[in-house]
Structure formats: C-alpha cells, structure tokens
C-alpha cells in the first residue's frame, strides 16, 4: 500500500502557493496526496466581505485544475464559511477533519502553522482545528508538518517584479506587505528541494486566475529567479515522535526525475 499525505488548508490556491512543489514531488514519488479545502473561497473577490457564490464555484473549478497539475489524487471540498473559520461552525470543522484522518489514515498531515503563513485568520483557524483534531488520536496521531515560506523569499519576488514594472494592486493577496510571509514562523525542521517541480508549481498557480490575476509577480520572474526563490519549501514538524517521517525521508532522498507530467507543465509554461 502506498503512503498517504493529507493536506488540510483553508482556500483554493493555498495548496499551490504554500507547498505546490512538495505536493507535486510527493505525487511523483508515488505518494497519494489528499487535499482538503475547508472553504470554497467565496469571499476572495473584490466584493470583500460579501459572499460571492459564483466566485466560489469558479474557485472550485480552479482548484480541480490546479490539483491535476500537481498530481493530487483526491480533493475534498468542505463548505465552511469563508472568512469565519476561527469563529463559526467550529465543532463541525473539527469533526470533518477527524473524519478525514480516520478515512484516509495518512502517514503525515500538512497544514498551516500558528502564524497562518501571513497571519490570515482563516489559515490560523485551520491550524487550530487541525491541532485539536490531532489530539483526538493521542499517540496514534500522524506527524503534522506546518508549512511556511522561506524568510524574505516573497520580498525578493515582489522586488524583482517591481523592478520590471509591476505595480502591486490596492486590494487582494498582492497588496499585502511581502515581509509578512513567514515572518514569525517557527524555524523549519524540514526543507524540501523542489527545483525540478517549480514549473508545475507555477502552472498550478496560473490555474487560480481569479486570485492570481493575469499580472501577478511570479509571472515577472526569469527561470533562474524562480528556481532560487521558489525552489525550496519549508516545514516545521510537530508530533509523531522522533523517527524520520514522510517529509524527512523525502528531503533526504536523492531527487527523482520528474514525470512526463512535469515536462508537459514546463512546455505549457
């Protein structure tokens, strides 16, 4: 039986931005990648706090496209309220995460850290609910890997894009201060080399057109810059004892040659 990793995140696009390279590498290594998105992301548009269910439907389709690019085996779409994961329907989200762990029996769980990647309240809510769910399993709980971003990597991406004429928008993801990404995260215990999978990560990000837009800073990077700033992904492990887990073994292994799917993604890029 092949191993399974359960990836528990908040919105469509979180998977590609935070750890798309690692998910693609795991899939190529034969691991079953199960992705759980707590929301449809229906509040992720210019309407702000207003729920846009048409946008939510669009983001579901974008997620499915991105999942295919990354080699994700299963996509679980919950219907929790976007923007309110820390406060609304908390017992329900807890129960849904517990049910997913019982169903898939993962060797590892990937989710956000306490900083929510860049202090997004929904991301922090997913971190909190995942950790309470893991406590349900006691010593039998799988190790949890909290994804973060290498410090200053997003600053480097944004500065390079601005140097080529890109202007940050007034709202949305790219309006955030880039130094907030990974600023107060725990130091990584696992660093995964994903350089050969960067084209797949970028291809998956392009699938999320409603969020990335058609003029996002990643599009301004040259190939060498993309490899430098997107070529490693950072994780901090909690729980699961001290024995090397799935991501430790992945990080220690010699990099395999990406599959034909990776070459297809490179050609598309």
Q: Can you describe what's shown?
A:
With 269 residues, the chain is of the alpha/beta class. It contains 11 helices and 7 strands. It has helices at 14-28, 53-70, 90-104, 116-119, 121-136, 153-163, 198-207, 209-212, 223-230, 246-252, 260-268, and strands at 4-9, 32-37, 74-77, 108-112, 144-148, 190-193, 232-238. It has a 7-stranded mixed β-sheet, sandwiched between helices. Helix 2 links the parallel strand 2 and strand 3 (74-77).
Short recap of the structure:
The protein has 269 residues and is of the alpha/beta class.
Features of this protein?
globular, seven-stranded mixed beta sheet, 269 residues
Largest sheet: 7 strands, mixed
Tally of separate helices: 11
Apparent shape: globular
Round the Cα radius of gyration to an integer and report it: 17 Å
CA-to-CA gap between the ends?
A: 34 Å
Strand order of the largest sheet: 3-2-1-4-5-7-6
Mean pLDDT across the residues is 91
Helix vs. strand class: alpha/beta
Number of strands: 7
Strand content: 5-15%
- Report the helical percentage: 40-55%
Q: Give the H and E element order.
A: EHEHEHEHHEHEHHHEHH
Task: Summarize the SSE layout with pairings.
Layout: E1 4-9, H1 14-28, E2 32-37, H2 53-70, E3 74-77, H3 90-104, E4 108-112, H4 116-119, H5 121-136, E5 144-148, H6 153-163, E6 190-193, H7 198-207, H8 209-212, H9 223-230, E7 232-238, H10 246-252, H11 260-268
Parallel strand pairs: 1-2, 1-4, 2-3, 4-5
Antiparallel strand pairs: 5-7, 6-7
Helix pairs in contact: 1-2, 1-7, 2-7, 3-5, 6-9
